[in-house]
């Protein structure tokens, strides 16, 4: 498999990646950040998988059931046909909350002829660190390991368990199922019960998707991206993950491999902003509560990222026994970046608080806590905005005065002032406005480089950086301001490579990046659109959409040469930027249609 040709299934508790040929090649249970059950994605030899094997006469196609997270893989040789519908159960319980157990269901649907297949069921618990042994019991297959620590998984099936475990050929003449559960079942499943689970889960997703408004253009892409973002939200705490995977490399064979199964305040805030614009209020509300729960002390500094269960310490370890995706070592779990200082997160958090107050001001319950957090953020920014930091791209070398970080310090003050007005706390305005203007002037004085005719990556440098494109969308500068137009043009000239963008071109801790950071290209397209180059922007957008995988999913990076997807997958950041672009294009089209009808 040369690309990240996987589909994602999940239930807001965990997720699994399923290959183009129907193999489960990545899954952690019981939760997103648990150790893996299947990790063929990170080691083809020992990682473990759950595959459906057919002979070469079968062609295999894959699609999502429309507007749902149910993934259908179809196997057909023309005469003999069957489908696997993969999903993780999720639906409303009769007495509040959701039913979302840590399990995967594979519903096998008979369609025609006498289709034959074999099963390769090879779980490798605890990141395949020790041996996993499987035992055929009366009602299920139990797999367990006790090498590193004790762990078990249970497989229930309507098929002959011995035939399944021995990889013998199974001839299909009726529907059947596999249920892989982290817990032993109290009530035994049956094909009929499993079918009901599938229908209930389908209805849950159809209802959820139905809340997403219809747009004139790119409707299918917006919906698929919205569902993907929902799949990356963690029900229990409201956290939003950057991605459900670890150590998928930004460049094959290199060492930029990180664990993304955490909640970055920056990414998650942007996700919430976009998701709430799509009308999904609960995701936004619960994420806000997640943040409020993380800021208990008034002088406690916000970390850039947290564990999905609000863990503050995310120690980074290396799994040396795994060979890595396509041989790209090391495989890491945990992420040392949690200890980094990044001054932009305060502005991002203030922006999301302001957005929520604007959208839900009548039904925000925790106004007093939000006002306390707002005051705390202004206090922290006032004390620290003049300091250097690691920046949005988490440089692991020396701190610098990054333009993006400074702009976001300005955003923190700008939004705090607006929040003060909403809460009618006018006694703060004079002092806060003075600081807001001071930061703004400082950025214009130090981040603008007249020789480059652009705002640059950091104070005193001549390097360009795609993150400064966000100055406009955060309201720091109008789109048609000559300084912003100049910046967009300079970035196009220096950082664009066949329409795909470098984050930056100056060498970082690991040398010059050889892949494009997908979100940067979306930011660039948005900026082109805003400065009036709309046709060019839409052409770039359509081209970028063509680089998604067969299911419309994006990872973090795209290789400049081959256009293959790289980096952790699917990536929340990429999908939220896709939605933002698509909505902007759609709104523009709607406005033009209205104007046409008025003429």
UniProtKB/TrEMBL annotation:
Transmembrane segments: none annotated. Residues 8-130 form the Trehalase-like N-terminal domain. One of its GO terms (biological process) is carbohydrate metabolic process. Coiled coil: none annotated. It comes from the Bacteria. One of its GO terms (molecular function) is hydrolase activity, hydrolyzing O-glycosyl compounds. InterPro entries: 6-hairpin_glycosidase_sf (IPR008928), 6hp_glycosidase-like_sf (IPR012341), GH15-like (IPR011613), Trehalase-like_N (IPR045582). Residues 222-582 form the GH15-like domain. Pfam families: Glyco_hydro_15, TREH_N. This is Glucoamylase (Glucan-1,4-alpha-glucosidase), GH15 family. The lineage of its organism: Bacteria, Pseudomonadati, Bacteroidota, Flavobacteriia, Flavobacteriales.
């Amino acid at each position: 498999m040369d690309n990240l040709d996987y589909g994602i299934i999940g239930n807001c508790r965990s997720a699994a990646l399923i290959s183009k040929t129907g193999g489960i090649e990545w899954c952690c249970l019981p939760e997103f950040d648990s150790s893996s059950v299947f990790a063929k994605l990170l080691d083809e030899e020992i990682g473990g998988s759950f595959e459906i094997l057919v002979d070469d006469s079968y062609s295999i196609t894959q699609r999502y059931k429309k507007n749902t997270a149910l993934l259908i893989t179809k196997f057909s040789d023309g005469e003999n046909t069957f489908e696997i519908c993969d999903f993780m159960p999720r639906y409303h319980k009769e007495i509040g909350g959701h039913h979302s157990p840590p399990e995967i269901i594979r519903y096998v649907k008979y369609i025609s002829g006498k289709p034959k297949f074999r099963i390769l069921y090879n779980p490798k618990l605890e990141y395949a660190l020790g041996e996993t042994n499987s035992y055929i019991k009366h009602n299920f297959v139990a797999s367990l390991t006790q090498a590193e620590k004790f762990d078990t998984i249970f497989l229930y099936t309507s098929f002959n368990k011995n035939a399944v475990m021995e990889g013998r050929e199974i001839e299909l003449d009726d529907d059947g199922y596999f249920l892989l559960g982290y817990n032993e079942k109290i009530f035994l499943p049956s094909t009929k019960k499993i079918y009901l689970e599938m229908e209930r889960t389908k209805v849950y997703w159809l209802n959820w998707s139905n809340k997403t408004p219809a747009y004139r253009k790119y409707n299918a892409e917006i919906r698929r991206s919205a569902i993907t973002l929902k799949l990356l939200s963690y029900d229990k705490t409201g956290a939003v993950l950057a991605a459900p995977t670890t150590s998928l490399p930004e460049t094959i064979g290199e060492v930029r491999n990180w664990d993304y199964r955490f909640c970055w305040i920056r990414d998650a805030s942007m996700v919430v902003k976009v998701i709430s614009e799509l009308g999904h209020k609960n995701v936004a509300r619960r994420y806000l509560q997640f943040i409020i729960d993380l800021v208990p002390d008034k002088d406690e500094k916000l970390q850039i990222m947290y564990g999905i269960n609000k863990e503050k310490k995310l120690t980074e370890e290396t799994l040396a026994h795994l060979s890595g995706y396509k041989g790209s070592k090391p495989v890491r779990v945990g992420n040392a970046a949690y200890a980094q200082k990044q001054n932009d997160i305060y502005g991002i958090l203030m922006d999301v608080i302001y957005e929520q107050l604007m959208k839900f001001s009548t039904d925000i319950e925790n106004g007093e806590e939000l006002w306390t957090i707002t005051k705390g953020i202004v206090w922290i920014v006032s004390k620290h905005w003049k300091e250097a930091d690691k920046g949005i791209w988490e440089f692991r070398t020396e701190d610098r005065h990054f333009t993006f970080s400074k702009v976001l310090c300005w955003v923190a003050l700008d939004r705090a002032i607006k929040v003060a007005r909403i809460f009618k706390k006018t006694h703060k305005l004079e002092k806060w406005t003075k600081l807001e203007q001071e930061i703004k002037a400082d950025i214009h004085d130090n981040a603008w480089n007249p020789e480059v005719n652009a705002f640059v990556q950091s104070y005193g440098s001549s390097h360009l950086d795609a993150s400064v494109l966000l100055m406009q969308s955060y309201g720091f500068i109008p789109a048609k301001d000559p300084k912003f137009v100049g910046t967009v043009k300079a970035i196009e000239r220096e950082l664009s490579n066949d329409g795909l963008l470098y984050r930056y071109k100056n060498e970082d801790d690991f040398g010059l990046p050889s892949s494009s950071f997908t979100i940067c290209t979306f930011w660039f397209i948005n900026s082109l659109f805003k400065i009036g180059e709309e046709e060019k922007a839409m052409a770039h957008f359509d081209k970028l959409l063509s680089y998604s995988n067969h299911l419309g999913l994006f990872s973090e990076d795209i290789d400049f040469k081959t256009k293959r997807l790289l980096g952790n997958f699917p990536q929340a950041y990429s999908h939220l930027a896709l939605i933002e672009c698509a909505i902007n294009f759609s709104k523009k089209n709607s406005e033009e249609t209205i104007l046409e009808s008025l003429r």
